[in-house]
Amino acid sequence: MLIRGGILLDPSRDLQARLDLRLAGTRIAEAGEHLRPEPGEEVIEADGAFVAPGFIDMHVHLREPGFEWKETIATGTEAAVRGGFTAVACMPNTRPALDAPEVLDDLRARCDREARCRVHPIAAVTKARAGAEPCDYAALRRAGAVAFSDDGDTVMDAALLRTAATALRGLGAPIISHALDAALHRGAAMHEGEVSRRLGLPGSPAAAEEVIVARDLVLAHATGARWHIAHLSTAGALELVRWARAHGVGITCEVTPHHLTFTDEAVERLGGAAVVNPPLRTADDARALREAVRRGEIDAFATDHAPHTREEKERDSREAAPGFTGLEIAVGAYASAVPDLPPLRFVALLSTNPASILGLEGGTLAPGAPADITIFRDEAWRVESARFASKGRVTPFDGMTLPRRAIVTIVGGKVAWRA
Fold first, then answer.
1. What integer pLDDT is reported at residue 90 of this predicted model?
2. Which of 60, 79, 188, 318 fits a 20 to 30 Å CA distance from 278?
3. 304 is annotated as an active-site residue
């Protein structure tokens, strides 16, 4: 395959140049000017679009096994390739949880049959994600786990988490924190503040996130484990990350498109469609997150793709399922939230950095790298969630016009999707 006329973006080599790119089988072969097609070679005309190493979403809920009415491997990965993602890392809050090698083996078999892109499992920290008993981390790592998290349920036992971190330090896999103190959160529907008081809804304070972030950063410092903070949402949590980095803690963090874009006022307008954990915060928090992206303090963009049925999202805000679909809007949503972000930095947050954090092959256009490619273009398009491939059709981005979109997704040297 030959991709012609595109602007290559490779943060791993600080490369931004109009070059052609040749793929040979499942690998990248070469880049150069005015490459001639070889006999039988498929040619993709990129026509001034951006050509990047395949995008990786390191925070996705595929729901299978156990919650197939919300999403399946087939529908979730189809949504991924339509959104420009060549790989996703799936969270362990399935039924059964991804807490044993045989469950990961079953997941791999399902993905071999159904997946449209690469799927990397994130295994549980505790058995059944119950927060009480550690998993066999070495066995899960051998079975393909790229990271460990009880996502959706914070591990509240600090001693257990310290033991897990010490074990995982030797295995080279990061812990991914879902930072939400259950006692402070109390099942709240939204952020605690002026809007929640006006609506008479129970609110989750910023402290519910920040006390867990602080604890986990201290544990990361004490154990030397690799630690990643998922879906950072408050200005205070950002300050804690800055403190940790100033003290030599090897911490990474991610932000979602919805926390960059929306505030708690969306709950007043959209009801359950704007309910998510952590909740949408204040305008000051969203502004702080966007500035942190610009300053290079955020390591990855991640959608926290969390599909639910329309019925689950259209309930009263107190009862609506938290989360919404994100894979198909992500590229445009990030560009809309931070429109002045340089293209190389944009690609680093979506590809090079997630690959590095999870220890994955990819994130580069260097010869010999996997032939996983995302081609995207700056062009306006309107979000129509009714046309999503995902079973989750509820998103606060529905009806918005976004400025950027993926136009071709190539996985292993084969076109998985094109606009």
1. 98
2. 79
3. yes
